[in-house]
Amino acid sequence: MAELLLPGGWLDAAGSCHQEAAIRPACGEDEEWLYGLPLTTPEPAVVTGLLTRCLTRVGPHAPPGRDVVRSLPVGDREWLILRLWRLTLGDRVELVVTCPQRGCGTRMDLDFALEGLVAEPRPQRPSYSLDPIGLRFRLPHGDDLEALGRALAEEESGGGVSGGGASGGGASETDRAAALLGRCMIPPPSTAEVTALLARTPGLWEGMAEEMRRHSALVDREFDAVCPQCEREFTGEFDPILAFLTEMMRRRPEFERDVHLLSLHYHWPLSEILNLARSRRRRYVRLLLDQLDVATG
Ligand SMILES: [Zn+2]
Fold first, then answer.
1. Alpha carbons 81 and 219: distance in angstroms, whole number
2. Nearest-CA neighbor of 132 among 204, 222, 233, 32?
3. Percent of the chain at pLDDT exceeding 70
4. What is the Å distance from ligand 1's center to 271 Cα?
5. What is the spatial distance between Cα 92 and Cα 15, in angstroms, rounded to a whole number?
6. What integer best gives the mean pLDDT of the chain?
7. How does 103-127 read in b/e, with b if 16+ C-beta sit within 10 Å?
8. Residue 267: its H or E element
9. In whole angstroms, what is the distance from residue 288 CA to residue 297 CA?
10. 267 pLDDT exceeds 80?
11. What is the pLDDT of residues 67-118, one digit of tens each?
12. CB within 8 Å of 242: residues ≥ 6 apart
């Protein structure tokens, strides 16, 4: 388990910011839960589920429960997934990236330490003001992302029924960004109010998004790389949540083999095997495989 300080923090009902938290590594039960989810589960819901399972404390709440995890700022959720990654799978990440240079497109392996991905601490406040119009807003939270994820999933399933192509109907990326910003206004405005605001204040969304970024404790996702083929330097962006979930899915066969081997040879109840932290389970499996090697070799 790791004690940590959230870069953005959780706000209680009185508006005080709590940054103390604790998280444990994922164990077999968490992996089984993850592998049992429908593939269509929106990513923000998966993150809420995983953090609800693995966070053991946020501020005064131990364990925090789903509602607290949902009300964590977006940057903290991403940062917590990185901590969960390090605790569960170790500090190294291996990526395959493509050179963005026109006419090159060389694919290369990249390897770096997750420890280097940090978020500048910026304790969250209950509200912020967008000057000079004095509009009040709060930072986006997990439940805002979940609501957008649900809307997107409904849109996509709707598009499937009508056989819609890539250009057919549905909200655009810009509409979704506007929906997120609208949810964060204090108080949340009606559609008519948004229309009136936009007429009075061109560039409202851009200004608000910029201010939100300035006040948010966000993980620095950028990395620099040099293409081995064209030798150009370029900057890429690493998506910690997508990368972590992809990495966990890639390890599913290993998880199933581990559980199978341990049950077969030790006859431990399944619940005990699934309760082991992944690193501990892997140690037992390595010992077992060494022993089997000796026995058969
Ligand atoms: Zn290149």
1. 11
2. 204
3. 95
4. 49
5. 37
6. 90
7. eeeeeeeeeeebeebebeebbbeee
8. none
9. 14
10. yes
11. 999 999 999 999 999 999 999 999 999 889 999 999 999 999 998 899 888 8
12. 43
- Residue 18 contacts residue 9 (beta carbons within 8 Å): yes
DSSP-derived 3-state class of residue 105: coil
Distance from residue 246's CA to the centre of ligand 1 (Å): 25
Q: How far is the CA of 226 from the centre of ligand 1 (A)?
A: 8
For ligand 1, the distance from its centroid to the CA atom of residue 230, given in whole angstroms, is 4
Q: How far is the CA of 222 from the centre of ligand 1 (A)?
A: 18
Query: What is the CA(231)–ligand 1 centre distance, in A?
Result: 6
Ligand 1 centroid to Cα of residue 107, in Å, is 8
Whether the model pTM is above 0.90: no
| Ligand 1 centroid – CA 233 distance (Å) | 8
Cα–Cα dist 150/171, whole Å: 13
Angle at 260 between CA 257 and CA 266, to 5 degrees: 130
**Cα→Cα distances 42→39, 45, 163, Å:** 8, 6, 21
What are the domain boundaries of the chain? 2-163+170-247, 253-296
Cα of 106 to ligand 1 centre, how many Å? 5
Nearest of 173, 169, 150 to residue 161 by alpha carbon: 169
pLDDT of 263 strictly over 60: yes
Contact call for residues 138 and 215 (beta carbons, < 8 A): no
Residue 168, pLDDT above cutoff 50: no
Query: Could you tell me the two tokens for 171?
Result: 């909200």
Cα-to-centroid distance, 105 and ligand 1 (Å): 6
Residue owning tokens 């605790």: 87
Tokens 């388990």, located at residue: 1
